[in-house]
Design goal:
Layout lengths: L14 H8 L9 H12 L4 H11 L3 H10 L11 E6 L2 H5 L2 H12 L12 E6 L11 E3 L2 E3 L4 H14 L2
Parallel strand pairs: 1-2
Antiparallel strand pairs: 1-3, 3-4
Helix pairs in contact: 1-2, 2-3, 3-4
């Protein structure tokens, strides 16, 4: 068995990552975004060991891989919680009170945007638009959209999720 990576406790000879890379031609950097999408779908984020391995496979620098990851908001370098909560701060949502929803989440979960609770259950993302302006203000938990949101609704959703975890 291989040595474990301190960052994510995975085996340094990560079979899942190797299976992803086998699908893509060695040295073809035009495939970078597709590979990063698959890596993120597999891990929930893009760990450092995967960035290094992708760079080696495509024969590009780690800086180039990192630059693409940080340029596109879809990619993340940190693990998300089991329940990733995204609060829309786009114009329609903001005008209708999404900041109070975000503030309540931060207060309840004791984390800021871009962070994950210590137990790994919840994370908060501040997003600019989820494409549901007619339902403003909006927040999402994973792929479920909550429209015409209120602070009370946030508390109800968090209570339900916390109860499910017991």
């Amino acid at each position: 068995m291989g040595e474990n990576c301190a960052e994510c406790n995975c085996s340094k000879t990560d079979e899942k990552l190797e299976d992803i890379l086998k699908k893509y031609e060695h040295g073809d950097k035009s495939q970078l975004i597709q590979i990063l999408n698959e890596v993120q779908n597999e891990y929930g984020y893009i760990p450092a060991h995967a960035q290094a391995r992708v760079a080696d496979h495509l024969e590009i620098s780690r800086a180039e891989v990192y630059g693409v990851i940080t340029f596109y908001s879809r990619f993340t370098l940190k693990p998300k919680g089991k329940y990733n909560i995204a609060v829309c701060l786009g114009t329609a949502c903001f005008v209708k009170g999404s900041q109070s929803i975000l503030d309540r989440l931060k207060e309840r979960l004791k984390i800021s945007g871009g962070e994950t609770t210590e137990d790994g259950k919840f994370s908060i993302d501040e997003v600019r638009c989820v494409g549901a302006c007619g339902l403003a203000p909006v927040f999402m938990v994973n792929d479920e959209v909550y429209g015409n949101a209120t602070v009370k609704m946030v508390d109800e959703v968090l209570d339900k999720l916390e109860k499910e975890e017991m």
